[in-house]
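seq as requested:
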Amino acid sequence: MKKLHIIITGKVQRVGFRYWLHQIANEKNVYGWVKNKNTNEVEAVFLGEEKKVDEIIKLCRNGPISSNVESVKIEDYKQEYLKKSFDIR
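C-alpha cells:
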C-alpha cells in the first residue's frame, strides 16, 4: 500500500478542487482526506494501491478545469490511518 501526503499550490481554492479530488479518490478506491489550508493551498493524503495513488497524483498536477496548479509537493505519509473512506475536511 502506498501512502502519500501532498500540498498543491496555485489557483486551487474556490474552484471545486476538493470535491473533484473526492470523486476521483472514491472512483479509484483510494482512502485518505483533502482540505484547504489557510495559505490558499490544498493538502491531501492518499492511501491505496500504488498504481491508483500514482494516477491520482498525475491528475492533481493539472486539477479540475477551473484550477491552475503551480506545483505539487509530495512526501511519504508516515502516520497510521485506519478509516476506509476519503473525506473532505
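The two ends are 23 Å apart (CA to CA).
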